[in-house]
Every structure is written in C-alpha cells, then in structure tokens.
Amino acid sequence: MQKILVNLTLALVTEEIEIILESYPKHPYQQAFSPSGLRQDLIAYVLSRIPNTYTTIEPYESVSNQKVQVRCSSEQLLHIENLIHTGIRDVLHNYDKVDYRVPQTVKSSSRVSSWF
Questions:
Q1: Which of 19, 40, 81, 82 counts the most CB atoms within 10 A of its CB?
Q2: Residues 37, 45, 77, 55: what is their CA dihedral angle, to the nearest 10 degrees?
Q3: Domain limits of the chain?
Q4: Model confidence pLDDT, tens digit, residues 55-73
C-alpha cells in the first residue's frame, strides 16, 4: 500500500514562527507574515537552511494522530529561532524592494506638458 511522506520539521518551524511573530508588532510584521501573506516564504526560507526530518504514514492515518515529534537540541532550536528572526528581516526586505504601487492614471484631458 502507498504511504504518505510527511515533513516533521515543517510542523516545528511553523510553530516556532507563530510563537516568534507574537513578539513582533502587529504592523508591519504580523500583518506581512499572516497566513495569507509572506508566511510561506518565511517557512521556505527557514526550511531550506536546516536539515529536515521526515516520516511516512498510512493514507488513512492523520498526521495529528502521530506521536512522532522532531527532537532537537537546545542549540538546534536556537539556530532555528535565529533563522526565523533573520528570515523575517530578509524576506520583508526583499518584499519591500519590489514596488507594488499602482501607477497613477492620467486623465485624458491633461496636457502633455504638465506630465513633466
């Protein structure tokens, strides 16, 4: 029977991100890294910089039913926390570099000479 591959490190990183973001101001950090915002970028940032632990489960099993947890030393946990803080800064900085402002529309009655 086919099994499902589960990244256990993902759950640990996601939980740590939630805890750490609570210590940041709502604006701009918690808003920017909301689940509908840049949170996935932050998760990818951290996961790509640490070893990941995986397990397999049967298709009928729920991940939440699994008692398997990622065991990491306090040094490893501190490293993950530091990566999250660095990632918050780097991801937000990279996002701010891109100009998402909508250009102003020009009224058709405006004179060309007034554009400059």
A1: 81
A2: 90
A3: 4-102
A4: 999 988 876 655 556 788 9
